[in-house]
Amino acid sequence: MSAAEEPIKKKPVNFSNILLGAGLNMFEVTTLGQPLEVVKTTMAANRNDSFLGAIKRVLSRGNLLGFYQGLIPWAWIEASTKGAVLLFVSAEAEYQAKRTLNLGSFGAGISGGVMGGLAQSYLTVGFCTCMKTVEITRHKQMEAGIKPPSTFAVFADIYRREGIRGINKGVNAVAIRQCTNWGSRFGLSRLAEDGIRKLTGKTDQSQKLNGYEKVLASTIGGGLSAWNQPIEVIRVEMQSKTEDPNRPKNLTVAKTLKYIYQSNGLKGLYRGVTPRIGLGVWQTVCMVGLGDIAKEAVAKLTGETPVGKH
């Protein structure tokens, strides 16, 4: 049997990717990630706010600490789990797309990102994102001078009144966001890597991009991935605790889209896109650019073959 006819063998699972993904996402959210998330969510929930207006609103809720609202425990729980899920599942899916479907870097990158994003949504991101949005958008008690209940008291109250569905409100919008997010980020980052290879003459796949080139590719991929901001605004509205008597009950993705468009027009669907671009760049640099660099470093230390690099 020739090399070309040899059956494709399933590679061993690389569990170092799980810990690596969790560590990278914890770093991302604790540095720039959560402040950008808070501003983005504030603008999406208060669609008449400008960028500076949203910053002033966040500062009024707790000065600089307002930018880290929802970090503990929800953003940390989300980061420590979704990073692991993303890096592990996306690397496996990207590898399989290349080996079994014979896809190029762009197609395999999209496949890996979509599968990783879907896995994230239903395993961990849905309820964590919902609780972060609840914390960021519940102003009434604070504005009235009433000390708001603890985050776990809010969680228990939502669960008591609405059950699992309440905790996972907007999870389908989260799933659409996550699979388009990471499909775009991985795919566009891989496409940017191919472009950088051509510009630098590294046409042979064995010639590795350096750290600066990886980060540049990730920055391009992350910035361009903000095209799906309407899905993010829909997600925030579905999970928001901002009071609006005109908002329909039992929101679905379609109902929410119609409500936002009727209330704020096309611009309303793109509120928060500026911090979203910054967040997309930072997340992609951490999870794609630094992720690839870190996977290779771990592989050298452990003697393993990094997943997706077979």
Record keyword descriptors for this entry.
globular; mainly alpha; 310 residues; transmembrane
In words, what does this structure look like?
The protein has 310 residues and is mainly α. The chain has a domain at 72-199. 73% of the residues lie in helices and 0% in strands. It contains eleven helices and no strands. The chain has helices at residues 16-45, 51-60, 71-100, 105-137, 140-143, 151-167, 171-200, 211-224, 229-239, 253-268, 273-302. Mean pLDDT is 82; it is low at 1-13.
Encode the helix/strand succession as letters. Answer: HHHHHHHHHHH
Number of helices: 11
> What's the β-strand tally?
0
**Could you report the average pLDDT, rounded to the nearest whole number?**
82
Question: Which value, in Å, is the CA radius of gyration?
Answer: 20 Å
Broad shape: globular
Protein name: Mitochondrial DNA replication protein YHM2
Keywords: Membrane, Transmembrane, Transmembrane helix, Transport
GO biological process, one term: mitochondrial citrate transmembrane transport
Subcellular location: Membrane
SSE map:
Elements: H1 16-45, H2 51-60, H3 71-100, H4 105-137, H5 140-143, H6 151-167, H7 171-200, H8 211-224, H9 229-239, H10 253-268, H11 273-302
Helix pairs in contact: 1-2, 1-3, 1-11, 3-4, 4-7, 7-8, 7-9, 7-11, 8-11, 9-10
Membrane topology: Multi-pass membrane protein
Family: Belongs to the mitochondrial carrier (TC 2.A.29) family.
GO cellular component, one term: mitochondrion
In short:
GO terms for molecular function: tricarboxylate secondary active transmembrane transporter activity. One of its GO terms (biological process) is mitochondrial citrate transmembrane transport. This protein has helices spanning 16-45, 51-60, 71-100, 105-137, 140-143, 151-167, 171-200, 211-224, 229-239, 253-268, 273-302.
